[in-house]
Amino acid sequence: MPISWSSVSRDGIILAEAGQDDEDGGVVKAAKKISSVRPTAGWEKAKSGKYRGLKFHLHELANTELDDNNGGEHSGKILLWTFSCVYDPNELSEDYAKAFLTKIVYVTEPLRGMPWWRDGGLLSAQPSFAPTLQQQMENVEQLGQLALLNQHVSETKNIMANNIENILERGEGIEELEDQASKLDELSKVFKKKAKQVRRLKMWQNAKHGMVIGTAITGAVGAVVIPPLIALL
User: Fold this and answer.
1) How far apart, in whole angstroms, are the C-alpha atoms of residue 59 and residue 38?
2) Which of 46, 82, 86, 157 has an alpha carbon 20 to 30 Å from 35's alpha carbon atom?
3) Where are the alpha helices (DSSP H) in the chain?
4) Cβ neighbours around 145 below 10 Å, total
5) Neighbours of 215 (CB within 10 A)
6) Cα–Cα distance for residue pair 16/38, rounded to 1 Å
7) pLDDT value of position 213
8) Contact by Cβ (8 Å): 59, 162
9) Dist CA 148 CA 166 (whole Å)
């Protein structure tokens, strides 16, 4: 399977994960390495043996009450949602790994308001979401690659722009924002380079599968128990 591990976390707490290690423990090593990378407003990457780790953050302003003691500025807690994966670059390109994580961001959107997602502890969403995460990992090479690649660039740019605004609300350094501005520009260049290739592929394929917004899963899938890989280590 091209994607060997994936997880969704909140404020550093793994809520759900799915994956399988190899004989040498390479997947676990890569998962731990990417998980330890400092969060930014955009993409983080890590290399461990033959594997690559990829991570994306969503900075969510939990509430926006006005603070009279701070000159009327908005105050509120930032929830840091983290979407991570480990993949084999010989089987899957970085662009498709990014498209996979972008899809997971939107699949989880209606779930992130649930109490066990917003306030739950370690693996609080494992029983309900790990089967869905496993299914998405298994389908990444089969369904909707072209549509995902075509959509994830603009959607990721929107998320990164919102992240920057929320980082400003939290008062983080301008140096980090300058770095993220460069990443946004790089993302645009990547999309332009891929656009011609995507158009050509569309002539040969009928990309019927777009972004999955719904979160319902079949009873058979929902009954599957997915054990955690690194959360309990």
Assistant:
1) 14
2) 157
3) 26-35, 94-107, 115-118, 126-139, 145-170, 174-204, 219-222
4) 21
5) 13
6) 20
7) 32
8) yes
9) 26
Q: For residue 202, give the nearest of 160, 153, 152, 144 by alpha carbon.
A: 144
Nearest to 85 by CA among 166, 25, 140: 140
What's the CA gap between 212 and 27, in Å, rounded? 27
Tell me the two tokens of residue 174. 């301008």
* Residue that is written with structure tokens 């009450």 in the block: 65
Per-state percent for the chain, helix, strand, coil, to nearest 5 = 45, 20, 35
pLDDT at 139: 84
Q: At 28, list the tokens.
A: 């676990």
Rounded (10°) CA dihedral 67, 72, 77, 82 = 180
Q: State yes or no: pLDDT of 212 exceeds 70.
A: no
Q: Which residue has the tokens 């390109």?
A: 93
User: Residues 119-145: what's their mean pLDDT?
Assistant: 87
pTM comes to 0.69
Determine the Cα–Cα distance for residues 53 and 46; give it in Å rounded to an integer. Answer: 5
Mean pLDDT of 90-119: 91
- Give Cα separations from 22 to 10, 36, 126 (angstroms): 26, 20, 21
pLDDT for 175: 57
Measured CA to CA in angstroms, residue 114 lies from 18, 60, 110 at distances of 20, 14, 8
15-45 pLDDT, tens digit each: 999 999 999 999 999 999 999 999 888 899 9
Please compute the mean of the pLDDT values over residues 150-155 and round it to a whole number. 56
Query: What six digits make up the tokens of 61?
Result: 């302003």
For residues 227 and 15, the answer to whether their CB atoms sit within 8 Å is no
